[in-house]
Amino acid sequence: MKESISEDQIMEGQRIPLKSWLKWLGQLFLSYQWWIILISAIVVSFFGLLGFAEYFLLTNPPKYTFLDILYHTLQLFVLNPGALPPPLNCKLEIARFLAPVIAGSTAIRAFIIIFREQNRLLKIRAMRNHIIICGLGNKGLLLALKLKKSGQKVVVIELDEENDNIKECRDRGISVLIGNATSAYYLKQASLNRAKYLFSVCGQDDINAEIAVQARKLIANEKMRPLTCFVHIIEPRFCHFLNKRELGLDRVPNFRLDFLNLFDRAAQAIIDDEQLSPFENKKIGATAFPRLLIVGVGYMGESLIAYIAKRRMSLAERIDEKLIISIIDHQANKKKDLLNLHYPGLDKVCRIDALQMDINSSDFEDGRFLFSADGSCNFDIIYVCLDNSSFALTTALTLDQNLREFMLPIIVRMSRKTGFIELAKNCNSNPNNIPDRIYGFHLLDRALTPELLEIFTYEMVAHNIHDEYVQERLKEGETVRINPYLVSWEKLPERIKDSNRRQAYYIKYKLHGIDCYITPMNDWFAEAVEFTPEEIETMAKIEHKLWMEDRVMDGWKFAPGIKNIRKKTSPCLIPWNELQEKEKEKDRETVRKIPAYLLKAGFQMYRAKKKDTTA
Fold it and tell me: Which residues are 134's β-sheet partners?
């Protein structure tokens, strides 16, 4: 066990070992080294001034001014005070020996800092396939620590050099660059051209978007593996809009853009968690869904309702049984109308009951809304989605007091991982029940996980494309021995994963060719888009063209005969009109499956409405 000195030991005058004293003094010096050096330099300068003043007064006649004395004092720090005939006074002796020590220690410390910084830059420049995180707030820190723990190489760019999180990152072996991530210079310093992911998680949406645009410009003409850029957007619906529009950027083959919203990610993680999900005991064909109460309908509450509704749709084809969701908010009626407006078809799968009340009011405190006239409880599970962690926990405890005998699970949103829940359980007068009823879900902890890299939009579509490819090839009689890519996604080589990702990313460009577009699945009852034979042919040609670009970029060449994976040769690297009909049909079949790929990833298509030009 390491020895250390506590304040109590010093105050009580306890005997402290010399080793502990030395360690304590060393830590003290490291913490205040620059202040110690500055104060020492001032003291030595003061001794030098007094010493030279006294020394020169003895000359006959005294002819030195104050500036001369100051000049000679400064010369002490560079070992050049000039010839000084004895006798020298004690003040001058102290000054001329300590000044070089202070100057030398300062130079050594500065050299060490410069060396460490240069070594850090060299280490970053040597990185390959690393992850860049822009912004080191709570989101950036948690993401960096989790990715580092999962074995990823991480580089952080942070503007504020006084940020306390910098030290924690560097202590964990994470490289941190101090600078503005919107600047091309610092993105280059972070070896953007060799990174595989870029996370922009600064506190402002516009800064995050600016970083993404700058990154796209830098790699537009680079020959590199694709870079996936995650842009954090705070408002969920704006995030959905940007996912749909992607800022109107033109296609850049080696740049993929995805928009990240913490509330959407956290909602998905909660409903996928067996312990927190309202569907954990719900089976297809069961007679009743659980009755839900959501307290607070801000960003988190809205995202939770939307994802619950999506999951309800996936449980069964029949929708005659609606999921009942009650919401409590001081603007509950307005929030209900907005939910139905934002998610067309929501009222067909869910019945939203608005309970408009102030959570600080007596109506909420007495809890009569929780019960029916016969005394039975109106709900099966409660979600508290308030922004303030302590207020959310207080609200949960208030509900728990009224529902003690019903043992209802209460899930509380916490802004970050804290000890509030554990503290409340330990302090409660009846702690045996609370652990089974109150659960805390930590927004950042749930949303920012290493698995995030595997669930972004194009990654999910890429998974679906590969799964379909494997099934089709197995039906044709191919085996892993013949085709080594007939394995699970996790076992695929990274370059083959990238190929599937590019194919997923290019779906929107194929659809643009027939005036179709992609949007998040908010309207579950929208009419499905069906392709005409002409549209299938148009997109199949685009599919083949993009496939050829992808193969050439990966080093493949044309060669007649049979495709050779090891030599990277294929007989299909020819124009569309020269392809055999069998190969053309493969491209057409890929196009026909686009709606299914998107549906599995939570997206749908829609046709652009053409303007009426007859008027």
Answer: 157, 200
Q: With contact defined as beta carbons under 8 Å apart, do 563 and 569 qualify?
A: yes
DSSP string over 200-245? E--S-HHHHHHHHHHHHHHHTT---S-EEEEEE-SSHHHHHHHHHH
- Domain housing 79: 32-113
Q: What is the pLDDT of residues 364-413, one digit of tens each?
A: 888 889 998 888 888 888 999 888 888 888 888 888 888 877 778 888 88
Domain boundary among 53, 84, 113: 113
Do 572 and 472 lie in one domain? The reply is yes
Q: Cα(230)–Cα(398) distance, rounded to whole angstroms?
A: 39
Q: Contact, 82 vs 75, CB < 8 A?
A: yes
Name the strand (E) or helix (H) holding 255: strand 255-260
Give the ranges where 436-481 is alpha helix by DSSP (H).
443-447, 457-475
DSSP conformational letter for 562: S
Is residue 290 a part of any domain in this protein? yes
Taking a C-beta distance cutoff of 8 angstroms, is the pair 205, 234 a contact? Answer: yes
Decide: residue 130, CB within 10 A, 0-12 exposed, 13-18 middle, 19+ buried: buried
Buried b (16+ CB within 10 A) or exposed e, 222-246: eeebbbbbbbbbeebbebbebbeeb
Cis previous bond, 87, omega within 30: yes
The Cα–Cα gap between 356 and 335 comes to: 10
CB atoms within 10 A of CB 156: 27
CATH at residue 240 = 3.40.50.720
Report if residue 615 sits inside a domain.
no
Task: Give me the percent of the chain exceeding a pLDDT of 70.
Answer: 77
466, 585: one domain? yes
- Residue 378 belongs to a domain: yes
Which residues, 6+ apart, have CB-to-CB distance to 463 below 8 Å?
489, 500
Q: Cα 338–339–341 angle (5° rounding)?
A: 60
Q: Are residues 201 and 305 in the same domain?
A: no
Cα distances from 293 to residues 187, 320, 323, 417, 490, in angstroms, run 46, 21, 11, 23, 38
Strand pairing class (255-260; 516-520):
unpaired
Domain identity same for 290 and 407: yes
Shared domain check, 477 and 434: no
CA gap 14, 481 in Å, rounded: 74
Shared-domain flag, residues 98 and 198:
no
* Beta strands at 410-414 and 255-260: parallel, antiparallel or unpaired: unpaired
pTM to 2 decimals?
0.58
User: Half-sphere exposure of 113 toward its Cβ, with a 13 Å CA cutoff?
Assistant: 9
